[in-house]
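Reply to dn_fold:

You asked what the input looked like. This is it:
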Amino acid sequence: MARTNGIEGIYRRHVQTVYRVCYSYLGSAADAEDAVQATFMKLVEHPRSFESEEHEKAWLIVAAKNHCLDVLRSASYSRVVALDECVPEPSVEDEVFADEPGEVMQAVLHLPEKYKDVVFLHYVEGRKTDEIARMLGSPPSTVRNRLADARALLRKELEGGGGI
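and this is what came back:
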């Protein structure tokens, strides 16, 4: 398959990653879709050149995260639950794309901000800690510590101890 250049190529290469980042912050498929659109519109409105596909991805992840945080901070943001979101799906193959997150994804959504990025990049994207460190501009030891702390918080939450 030929490599697609320009905004279309960037979109095709990274839309799923941007969606997952947005979903991990906003917890709603509809809100995540809106955030994905806003993130790519930033790139359309203010074109830039990237050194590599990894640079594209890193920029998009940071832009998506920042947009989601702006949405969450905005006074006008309020989550309205549609009726079909209240009815759970009988079987869900991928919690990341589900309208109603399962128990694990729900726990991840409740993690403090500093843990969400590393959990997402490591467990959903399959990235190594050194790669995550470069993408986020953090030391690899910080990434490893955040992953360990996030696992401990998730374990405690999923065992019924609460705490997130």
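Helices lie at 6-26, 29-45, 53-73, 83-86, 103-109, 113-124, 129-136, 140-158.
Hope that clears it up.
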